[in-house]
Amino acid sequence: MRQKGYALKTEKTYLHWIKRYILFHKKRHPQTMGSEEVRLFLSSLANSRHVAINTQKIALNALAFLYNRFLQQPLGDIDYIPASKPRRLPSVISANEVQRILQVMDTRNQVIFTLLYGAGLRINECLRLRVKDFDFDNGCITVHDGKGGKSRNSLLPTRLIPAIK
Description:
The chain is mostly helical. Helix 1 crosses helix 3 (53-70) and helix 2 runs antiparallel to helix 3 (53-70). The chain is elongated. The chain contains 7 helices and 3 strands; from the N terminus they run H-H-H-H-H-H-E-E-E-H. Strands 1-2-3 form a 3-stranded antiparallel β-sheet, with no helix packed on it. The chain folds into 2 domains: 2-70, Tyrosine recombinase, N-terminal domain (DNA polymerase, domain 1); 96-164, Intergrase catalytic core (hpI Integrase, Chain A), CATH 1.10.443.
């Protein structure tokens, strides 16, 4: 999978869903199954497991990869029961709550949290940052190998500059 440009995290996620699919069908080999078994599995995720719609789509992508690219058995259209979309809005914490959280953190964790929140970084992007990625003069951060293996620039919160230096 990595030879085709997939991230390690994607590989692990796909393997997880492929294992769950095989276990769901009592350890039958995927070559002996097809579209109908995939439909049953995806529908059960929605009906019995009550997974989110994006979780169900990830499982579908994993199985499509397995059948289309690995087993060379295209699945075609699968008429599965989709998971329901969440009906509630996400809760957003107030600026006051953010300040209270920051007050109980040590300096290192404050910097990490503020980078994640203020610069819009993903956790893996933050973990991979190096000193050379910070442009203090222009107030930006270069993020290498982000989602999809792409690089991008993000704003560096000015209040973090002294702590990072």
